[in-house]
Protein: Carbon-nitrogen family hydrolase
Organism: Streptomyces olivaceus
Amino acid sequence: MRASLIQIAVNEDETVEARRARVAALVRAQAGADLVVLPELWTTGAFAFGEFGTAAEPLRGPTHEAMAAAAGDTGAWLHAGSVPERGPDGRLYNTSLLYSPSGDLAASYRKIHRFGFDKGEAVLMGAGHEPVTVRLPETTVGVATCYDLRFPELFRTLVDAGAETFVVPAGWPERRRSHWTLLAQARAVENQAFVLACGTAGTHAGVPQAGHSIVVDPWGEVLAQAGAGEEVLTVEFDPARAAETREQFPALKDRVLGLETPRR
């Protein structure tokens, strides 16, 4: 399976409309990929809190239209990162969009864990409540977003729903880049799953971004990692290795806590 993670640089001098068109072209350039992944809140920047309200759009808004068309033209599964969604209830949500190779919206995911400690995203956006998995021909994908990476119980829930590959778009800050790599590897090892974590480059509202998008295998080995700037990170991996790892080293079978019926 070939995955391309597009580590987008968010430049405040670039309009949302121009960035949307540029990113759609980058997606179309990934011909031959099975899965393309974009970062979190790339239309505005993850720390551009003042832009969330003005840039918010409905689920099937202009970003949906552009990304659906790009996925269909590319013929790949597309995790289009996330956008500030204005829901039917009028609230804002940090919502991920996932498209099939035909350009259909296969799933959406509202970020469950909002970052900010009673400010920023944590107060401006509503929380999602439903974990999301999507069945691709090669693997079942579990979806998480940025700060979600710090909460292992979400990933356990995704594993219980069949996830073998985690896709994590993010707008992770440079000052905590070591956590980004550490947590991506930890989520891979403890769940014996692949982790495809796609970050942003550039600076969002004065906050330098970590970049360093990363692909980790079920043993915690880093298969590929980007640098700090805008780039496309492409990697070939065998999704079947998740099941093989779980069979060879069946640690998940020894789980006791967190199960509906604890093992004895």
The longest strand covers residues 77-86. Residues 182 and 220 are 10 Å apart (CA to CA). The chain is about 25% helix and 25% strand.
